[in-house]
Amino acid sequence: MRLKPEQNRLDMGKITEKLLLEKCTPKNTKLEQVKTLNLSKLGLKSSDLPVPLLSRLRCLEQLDLSGNRLQEMPSGLFLPALRSLDLTNNEMEDVTTLATLTTLEDLRTEDNLYVTVSDNYKLMILLPKLRFYNGKDISTAANHIRYDNSENLRKRVLALWETSFSLPDHRTAEKLAIVERDFVNAVRHKVKYGPSSLTDYTKWRVEMIAKEHLHSLTEPNEEYRDAEEPADTKENCSFPFPAKRKRSASAVECDITINPQKIARVSVQAKDSPRRSSRLQSTPHKAERPISTTPRPHKAAQIPATPTRGQSKLLVTPRNGLREQQHQSKEDMPLAKQTRTPAKSARQQRSTEVNETPGKVICTKSLHSSQEPVSLQPLHVLQCHSKQDSPDDFSTQLWACSFQPKLDYNGDVNGATRIVATCGGESVCLIDCETGLVMKKYKVPGEEFFSLAWSTVLMSLEGNVGMRPCSILAAGGKRGLVKLLHPRANMAYGEFRASRKALSILRFSPRQGNLLFTGSYDKNILMWDIGGVDSKYNFKVIQLLVLETTSTPLHFCLPPGTPDTHLIAACEEGLHSYNIQLNKDPKKRSEEMEITFPVYEKDKDHDYHTIDGLGFLTDDVVASKTHMQGSIYLWSWKDTRAQWPNNNNKKKEKVCAVILAELQWSSTDIPYLSLNTCPSKGYVVCGDERGRLWTYHVTDLNANFRSGKAIPATEILEWPLPVRKGQGPVEGPAINSVAMDPELRYLVALSDKNMAVVWIRTESS
């Protein structure tokens, strides 16, 4: 989507000396003599503030920047006489960028959605002269934070140093850096003080104190000046929420081998859910286990919490060449030796052996992908969806994952962040793939989430003075409710009932972010308009279409070239195409055609109609697989659709997919092991029942693949054999879902044993 520029927004680079002199009061002819400046409601972003020009305002005492789009103050800005600053109604996130404005006495930050209670505390430390905050005299509270609170934290930090740390005998820069890293990591995890809403502030403050203490020991004659915020506190917010596949036996202990069972989905009648809107707060994290949080109403700014590190991780033994993880905490378990090929289990023995010779897949369609395959290495294994946060939970099944899109100023999706959303059990987690931290956690007791999807909608600014894009997350499961989340603001801002039965799949339109498709166990696909939200998070949902199916929908795809006209639904009983044009009648429709596959006729002794994997590799090439097929089809959507007679009769037409290639995959009787595609890199990836990832690098070289032989995988990534302390390695589970970011920097695989595995592309690739 693209936003209309605000009428009063300045052109880029137009803050000039002339403008500053026009906006000052009283009028002046020299910047060096300006004392009051009003730059409000100009649509300014942080990058629009020219530091060299503003730094000439050496006598500036009052600055009004309200009603802009500032996320932080520009680096290096120093205004030595500034006493009053108004940042009302901006988008401030990083308050530590105000640290250079040490002369501030009066500051306003109302209507900044992302400024938290912890941020308020940080400001009291960073701005030693601050006396008025948001119009209130905070002198007493500020002094308590600066002195009493800081002294209590300092005592705890020094006690931890005395009991657990000391300076190395032979001091080198490298050894001191290691001591600082370990000490800072320890105080951030072990020093607990104050309410849970201040966890983020506490970790930030004790890190500062720890560095000050080390500096006083190593450089006692120098004044310590490092007051930077920890790198991982900028976006670290953990906050709560609330099997699709049921096995007759579940693995509770990691050393138990389970024979695979035929998996059946269970439709659960939805129950009433919590209230529509709530702000979510965190509880303190213990270092030994992952902690979720519970929602409660909160009228003030949202509360960031400290992300979970190490405690929800299993340790992965990296392959050769993988860089070591940085900042490992003392609670992290030691790495164990790993074999690349797991011992055969009963489950593995039941699987049909296949040819696993790596081979590059060459497609007849031009895919514009890179010519060399990438190299992936395991980086993190996390166990963050546990029931009651138990580290012994290896039975919760994880079902869906998706990378958060990155937005540019106009609201257009521009790649993806390194944040991936995962769902399973009663929680939705947001994980930083680089650090392995669980940044946010949403939990709804009694829910079981099966699907999630990201989108971008418009949020109106305070007073309806403009619109801005915001990235939202929708999640749904057995209750039939769609939860709408705004993770950046730590808000579960609403919900609506999409079905009286469980939801199986959610998907937003890539072209219109307000259009949401839901699939449910009542055998219906519904199209909704969820609209945008106002500054108070009010929203309205309208049902637009009902698409009838004969079985439960499992996956949706909207053809990249025609996302407004067609929807392809992979269901329990086949693959179906629907016309979703809103200018057509009726509003309740059946499928236009069923797409069939050669495997249907090849083996009539088995039912291969369950389509449990679907994804577009290009605007035309589709990857799909059927249950028990043992391979993945690549087929042409355009050529297949061209066979549809379009005779406008009410009889459902069957059209055979135009197969371009068949990719060899595992032969297993376990359904719902879905695939994923990365179009920019030409990759198809699908997990199997042994924890392995089958990767296929599809190039743009021409070849004829109508020989009937399946193409082997480019590489099969073995299960990384994570180890839990005292329990040995965890054998390979079934991989229910995989996701890749658009540039294939990271790959995330979710298992049926409550483990999320993050893979990273190595530098060599």
TrEMBL record:
InterPro entries: Leu-rich_rpt, Leu-rich_rpt_typical-subtyp, LRR_dom_sf, LRR_LRWD1_dom, LRWD1, WD40/YVTN_repeat-like_dom_sf, WD40_repeat_CS, WD40_repeat_dom_sf
Region (Disordered): 219-244, 265-357
Domain Leucine-rich repeat and WD repeat-containing protein 1 LRR: start-end pairs: 18-209
Protein keywords: Centromere, Chromatin regulator, Chromosome, Cytoplasm, Cytoskeleton, DNA replication, Kinetochore, Leucine-rich repeat, Nucleus, Repeat, Telomere, WD repeat
Alphabetical list of SMART domains matching this protein: LRR_TYP (SM00369), WD40 (SM00320)
UniProt WD repeat ranges: 496-530
Compositional bias ranges of the Basic and acidic residues kind: 219-235, 321-334
Entry superkingdom: Eukaryota
UniProt-annotated location(s): Chromosome, Centromere, Kinetochore; Chromosome, Telomere; Cytoplasm, Cytoskeleton, Microtubule organizing center, Centrosome; Nucleus
Entry GO terms, CC: centrosome; chromosome, telomeric region; kinetochore; nuclear origin of replication recognition complex
Residue intervals of the Leucine-rich repeat and WD repeat-containing protein 1 WD domain: 371-759
PROSITE patterns: LRR, WD_REPEATS_1, WD_REPEATS_2, WD_REPEATS_REGION
Composition skew (Polar residues), residue ranges: 338-355
GO molecular function: chromatin binding
A GO BP entry: establishment of protein localization to chromatin
PANTHER family: LEUCINE-RICH REPEAT AND WD REPEAT-CONTAINING PROTEIN 1, OPTICIN
Similarity comment: Belongs to the LRWD1 family.
The name this protein goes by in its record: Leucine-rich repeat and WD repeat-containing protein 1
Organism in which the protein naturally occurs: Hucho hucho
